[in-house]
Amino acid sequence: LTHGWHMFADNHDGILLPGRFAKESGGTKNPNNWYDVGNGLKYRPRWVAYMGKEVGVYAFKTPRTDYDRQDYDNKVYINPLRPHMKDERNYAFGYNHQFLGNGRKTKGKFHKYPVHRDEITNFTDTVLGATCMGTAAGFTEAERTPYDNNGKSYSSFGNHGWTLDPPRLTPNADKGTGDPGSPRTAVDPCLSGKAIVAFLDGSVVAKSPEELGYRKDSNGKYLDTGAGGNRPTNRFFSGTGEDNGPPSLPR
């Protein structure tokens, strides 16, 4: 599937895949919210379905234009270590959308879109996507609740897992679900304490949260920021190899 990321850019004049396109007025009734996923039209599909279209590995047996909580049918999309996390919203893999393409809008302005491939200067050290625990990352390990395939509880493991926030966040940045008060998302170390991570150069490896730049408190809650030499760092997310802050929300 990772090859589909570059193929999307090849087919769109170098513009990178957004995590999801912004919602246009009219919701599911508006054809402008319907997108081709290879074997039919789908209402505002998430990033991974676009990648699958490019390589001919389709996400859904029957994509729908009237619903955005379908389960992924194709086994290629499923994390074998989290086989139950297959809802397209509460998904097992999250996209580095804040740096690679955030199609959300505030006051009619995109958060971070379009992004051109030539803006990326370090493909080897830039995360494309990784296993993600969703907004449960903003809670201590004891506060997290079990996965709910069709739920929206912030504390639920995997909630809004399709978006992966970078390690270091700022007060003016997007976060989690994008709703006011949303906790952050972060990687899921599902493989012997390590996350499964795809980089822009096509490599897929296992890395601990700390190796990727994340930091946690003593109770397992992922931190947004910190002080000193041990603060979270975005060097593996920014696209430049530098610890750049995430884009600020439009004003």
What does this structure look like?
The protein is mainly β and 251 residues long. It has a domain at 71-243. 8% of the residues lie in helices and 15% in strands. It has 3 helices and 9 strands, in the order αββαβαββββββ. The longest helix is centred in the N-terminal third of the chain and has 9 residues, at 47-55. The protein is globular. The mean pLDDT is 98. Residues 158-187, 209-251 are annotated as: Disordered. Residues 209-219 have a biased composition (Basic and acidic residues).
Q: Strand tally, please? A: 9
Helix content: under 10%
What's the overall geometry?
globular
The rounded distance between the terminal residues' Cα atoms is 35 Å
By secondary-structure content and strand pairing, the structural class works out as: mainly beta
Please trace the helix and strand order, writing H or E for each element: HEEHEHEEEEEE
Radius of gyration: 17 Å
Number of helices: 3
Averaging pLDDT over every residue, what do you get? 98
Strand content: 5-15%
Biggest sheet layout: 5 strands, antiparallel
Q: Looking at the chains present, what oligomeric state does this protein adopt?
A: single chain
Catalogue the unreliable spans. Answer: none
List keywords for this structure.
3 helices; five-stranded antiparallel β-sheet; 15% strand; 251 residues
Write the layout of secondary structure elements.
Elements: H1 3-10, E1 34-36, E2 41-43, H2 47-55, E3 93-95, H3 97-100, E4 102-106, E5 109-112, E6 127-134, E7 186-187, E8 195-199, E9 204-207
Antiparallel strand pairs: 1-2, 3-6, 4-5, 6-7, 6-8, 8-9
